[in-house]
Design goal:
It contains 20 helices and no strands. The longest helix has 21 residues. Among the domains are: about 190 residues, no CATH class; about 60 residues, no CATH class. With about 350 residues, it is mostly helical. The protein is globular, with a radius of gyration of 25 Å.
Length: about 350
């Protein structure tokens, strides 16, 4: 669920024709990522960091990590070249899809929606990596093929090799490429439908959910434990957090930032304090938050009407005899306008029968 800036650069850069850059890793691949985002000196080619960018980036993460898992580690792995085989294999997929002029692009959105590699595609990449493992050793003139994989000439030789061309021209591979690609027209049509949705920022709501899940008692005990080390202003902010939780009022960005900084400082300086705070978290907040986000994402991914989908959930909750079922209408209307729900909305969901699952 979290990755470093170096990993971010690696995952982003892996989808392209330069696996040797990915293999270099560290600051070099991160610089490549930043340069790609920024475009040229005139800003031409600059990438918009929006929802679509995020989803396609996560799709690349799913692809990269999926191949790593299939390759394996230790005695159960394909070999000792995973850090080279994975980006080289991804570049092969790119070369035969997006890299073909006038060809059909690879459907990264499918990976985002599935959140994993499908069985037939996993079988294909397993065969591809088995071949790539041998090709890297065969075409590397060095006794250390892993190190040599940082060089462009190795990729050039492998990508033009007869072995790779023969493998990628088989009927089975053709079926896979046909299934997991989409025409530019289809992708453009999808993008047009997605652009109809107003983007919703769930970040502050997510922070609220984290704080509310810890419960008021957590902050009451924390306040007592740090009473001698915090200022009066900080003490007042802790009291404000408690008051918001008790009254189910949304916590502002200012106070959410204060809470995260306070917790981080305590974890860094006196982590043992948390051992003295035995408060069972309230997981209902996270469950209701997940319900809203998953349903919203499904509407965006499948171009569904947000309000209609939330109204369906309202009717299901009504049939189950739940209270406050009209909250689905309120949330749906807000999301259509680009507004995230409030904590009071989530509280109502907490009280609905079956509120933790999207039907």
């Amino acid at each position: 669920m979290r990755f470093s800036k170096e990993q971010l650069g690696k995952y982003f850069t892996s989808w392209g024709d330069q696996p040797y850059v990915v293999k270099k890793g560290g600051d070099k691949v991160f610089k490549y990522f930043i340069d790609a985002l920024s475009g040229d000196e005139n800003g031409k080619g600059k990438i918009d960091v929006d929802r679509n960018f995020y989803e396609m980036l996560i799709a690349r993460v799913i692809l990269f990590k999926g191949l790593e898992d299939i390759y394996g580690q230790g005695s159960k792995s394909f070999g000792q070249l995973r850090s080279a085989v994975v980006p080289y294999s991804i570049s092969v997929i790119y070369k035969y899809t997006d890299g073909v002029r006038g060809g059909k692009p690879f459907d990264l959105a499918r990976l985002w929606q599935k959140e994993s590699l499908e069985e037939d595609f996993a079988g294909f990449v397993a065969d591809l990596m088995t071949l790539m493992n041998e090709l890297i050793k065969t075409y590397s003139p060095s006794d250390d093929p892993g190190e040599y994989s940082r060089r462009k000439d190795l990729w050039d030789n492998i990508s033009d090799s007869a072995e790779l061309k023969n493998f990628m021209s088989t009927p089975d591979v053709g079926k896979i490429l046909n299934k997991y690609t989409a025409s530019k027209e289809v992708l453009k049509e999808r993008a047009g439908k997605r652009n109809k949705f107003k983007s919703v920022d769930f970040s502050l709501l997510n922070q609220n959910v984290t704080i509310f899940s810890r419960k008021a008692d957590f902050y009451k005990k924390l306040g007592l434990l740090v009473a001698d080390t915090v200022t009066a202003a900080q003490r007042n902010k802790i009291d404000h957090l408690i008051n918001c939780i008790v009254n189910r009022n949304d916590i502002s960005a200012e106070y959410a930032l204060f809470e995260s900084q306070l917790v981080r400082e305590i974890r860094a300086g006196k982590p043992e304090l948390f051992d003295n705070i035995m408060v069972e978290p309230d997981n209902d907040w996270a469950a209701s938050f997940k319900l809203v986000v998953e349903l919203y994402n499904r509407c965006v991914d499948q171009s569904l009407d947000i309000l209609s989908e939330f109204q369906k959930q309202r009717e299901l909750a009504k049939l189950r005899g739940g209270k406050f079922y009209s909250v689905y209408d309120e949330i749906g209307k807000g999301l259509q306008e680009g507004k995230a729900p409030s904590m009071k909305h989530l509280y109502s969901l907490n009280n609905l029968i079956g509120a933790v699952e999207v039907s």
